[in-house]
Amino acid sequence: MEKVRDRLLNVDQVGQRLQCSRRHVYNLIEKGALPAFKIGSRQGIRVKESKIEKFLDECSMNCG
C-alpha cells in the first residue's frame, strides 16, 4: 500500500481553504476543533491537510 504524504499548511493557507479569517483559524485550533502543531520558533503553526479534510467532513455531517 502506497503511503501518501500529508501536506502541512500554515494558518493563512488554512484560512483560504476554509474561507475564513486567520483569527477564526486560531480560534478553531485553541478550541481543539482543528488539530495543529508548532514547527520551530519562527516557522509558526501548521495543520495537516488530512486534518482539514476531516474537519470539513465532520462539519458537513453535523450541519446538514
UniProtKB/TrEMBL annotation:
InterPro entries: DNA-bd_dom_put_sf (IPR009061), HTH_17 (IPR041657), SinI_DNA-bd (IPR010093). Residues 8-59 form the Helix-turn-helix domain. GO terms for molecular function: DNA binding. Keywords: DNA-binding. Pfam families: HTH_17. NCBIfam families: excise (TIGR01764). This is Predicted DNA-binding protein, prophage CP4-57 regulatory-like. It comes from Desulfobacula toluolica (strain DSM 7467 / Tol2).
